[in-house]
Structure to design on (336 residues):
């Protein structure tokens, strides 16, 4: 297996990257070539000021075996190798490699990093690894073999709702009081004389005005307004455009009296909906627009055979009230 350091994402074809991702141990929107490239160009919306790209590929002959998108930066007072996309806005990260090649790819990768960049880093600190990723066990085993220190801990919960195509069956699984509340709010919205409509932005639509409307709703929340500083808005806009062009951006609105009042931004990818962000206007709160939109979104998933709604990172109460069951993303730190 030949390992090669690439200096830029343009040195590997997006198609080749994304085709390997389809067969990889972790296939998420945050590992696609377009996301990884744009995240690096914008450094996560300014999350990292000084960083060195370490984009490593492994091949056997002409066959691409694995990709490790990494960067080196000063973190916790030491030079550290992190997964490209770390830490705040990429809910799931990992190396990109097929299951059968995974163990030897990771072992060879660590050999390569230790030899080619020996004096450049002292620890490897990987965030947002799915709790079922084979990378967790591989890093633990490699650390033991090499005599390196190893730390593994839960980083964030990622609640999810399993779905089987039946909205009523979904409702039957959540707490009775909450089930009645959802039905009542959906009924009240449907019966309102303010013409409440659930709208999904079409793939052929001009996405720019729709994104602007989404951002306007998002910043109604003071915490999200602080998060969406100009660099972060530029980062998010670039990726959301790319996701729209790629056919997996899912943007829904609740319209009340002709005005978009709540927004749900998701990725429709691999047969499930990945809930990335949302926004709600302070007007018409008597109609619970955020709750009604989310209920309609879950119902859409059922009616369109999406097998899961993934709330992704965060332990907000509403996720559990709607039936979210915890999974987790992990942090693994390995030090030489």
């Amino acid at each position: 297996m030949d390992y090669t350091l690439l200096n830029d994402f343009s040195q590997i074809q997006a198609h080749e990257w994304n085709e390997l991702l389809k067969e990889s141990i972790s296939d998420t929107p945050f590992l696609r070539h377009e996301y990884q490239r744009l995240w690096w160009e914008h450094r996560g919306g300014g999350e990292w000021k000084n960083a060195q790209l370490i984009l490593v590929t492994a091949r056997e002959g002409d066959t691409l075996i694995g990709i490790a998108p990494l960067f080196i930066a000063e973190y916790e007072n030491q030079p550290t190798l992190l997964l490209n996309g770390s830490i705040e806005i990429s809910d799931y990260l990992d190396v990109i490699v097929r299951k059968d090649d995974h163990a030897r790819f990771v072992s060879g990768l660590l050999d390569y990093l230790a030899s080619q960049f020996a004096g450049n880093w002292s620890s490897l600190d990987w965030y947002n690894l799915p709790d079922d990723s084979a990378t967790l066990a591989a890093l633990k085993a490699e650390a033991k073999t090499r005599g390196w220190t190893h730390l593994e801990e839960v980083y964030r919960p990622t609640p999810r709702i399993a779905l089987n195509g039946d909205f009523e069956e979904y409702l039957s699984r959540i707490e009775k009081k909450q089930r009645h509340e959802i039905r009542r709010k959906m009924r009240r919205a449907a019966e309102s004389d303010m013409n409440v409509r659930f709208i999904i932005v079409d793939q052929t639509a001009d996405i720019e005005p729709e994104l602007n409307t989404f951002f306007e709703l998002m910043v109604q929340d003071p915490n999200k307004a602080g998060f969406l500083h100009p660099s972060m808005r530029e980062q998010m806009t670039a990726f959301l455009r790319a996701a729209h062009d790629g056919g997996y951006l899912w943007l829904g609105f609740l319209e009340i009296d002709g005005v978009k009042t709540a927004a749900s931004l998701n990725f429709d990818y691999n047969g499930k909906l990945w809930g990335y962000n949302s926004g709600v206007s302070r007007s018409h709160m008597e109609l619970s627009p955020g709750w009604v939109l989310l209920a309609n979104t879950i119902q859409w998933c059922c009616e369109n055979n999406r097998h899961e709604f993934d709330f992704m990172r965060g332990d907000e109460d509403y996720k559990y009230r709607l039936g979210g069951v915890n999974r987790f993303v992990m942090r693994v730190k390995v030090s030489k």
About this structure: The longest strand covers residues 63-75.
